[in-house]
Specification:
217 residues; MksE; mainly alpha; DUF4194 domain-containing protein
């Protein structure tokens, strides 16, 4: 490894650690890391390092979101991927129903995507004023993914948003404000949904929009 490459790797060591921990790098979550991976030379150096440990840089959202994947898949890697995919599948219905609720409650034409802000207080007001939205939120919050036992809208919505931050789908830049920003992990989720829809014919988005009664608890 050349001195230049070593210097680059040292400068991006924190970024590599984030990738190896399974985090998604986008402009919203880590603008410096995102810019580094958008640079062909830096991305190549990171890729070379990851390749040494059977990892590679994956991307989603038309190349705007980066994550770490396996370069070659053996039995051990297949078990890890299978477990991760199962976790995502178990979370799909509550996540899709939440996305539909946010889109309808916010009056947006398009689904929530990376970089878009959600003002919790405004959304909560609309939900409280609309019986159908209140029912949707109650159902969503009681899924095992969120685990709410409350009948109160305020407690339900705050728990859901707190959990989504923990899962990496949202970020809250200022802890003193109820403003959340969607991360690139949502764009990755959309690609997973499209993949499953195309290969399994599940029509997950259609299921959510028709308020399926399927329960994942």
């Amino acid at each position: 490894m050349s001195q230049t490459t070593e210097t680059t790797i040292v400068g991006t060591s924190a970024l590599i650690e984030r990738l190896l921990k399974g985090q998604f790098i986008c402009r919203t979550t880590d603008e410096d890391g995102w810019r580094a991976l958008k640079s062909p030379s830096t991305r190549d150096h990171v890729e070379q390092y990851l390749n040494q440990i059977n990892r590679t840089i994956g991307s989603a959202g038309e190349g705007e979101v980066f994550f770490c994947g396996y370069q070659q898949i053996g039995d051990g890697e297949r078990k890890v991927i299978s477990s991760q995919f199962k976790d995502i599948c178990n979370a799909l219905i509550p996540l899709v129903e939440w996305l539909v609720l946010v889109q309808e409650g916010s009056g947006q034409d398009a689904p929530l995507s990376e970089g878009v802000a959600v003002r919790l207080t405004e959304l909560q007001t609309r939900i409280e004023d609309t019986p159908a939205f209140r029912e949707q939120l109650a159902k969503i919050s009681h899924y095992r993914l969120f685990g709410s036992t409350s009948t109160n809208v305020d407690a339900q919505i705050k728990l859901v948003f707190k959990r989504l931050v923990e899962l990496g789908y949202l970020t809250r830049p200022n802890s003193e404000k109820q403003i959340y920003i969607a991360t690139g992990k949502l764009d990755y989720l959309y690609e997973v949904i499209r993949f499953i829809d195309e290969t399994e014919g599940l029509s997950l988005e259609a299921q959510a929009e028709t308020a399926t009664q399927r329960d994942l608890v």
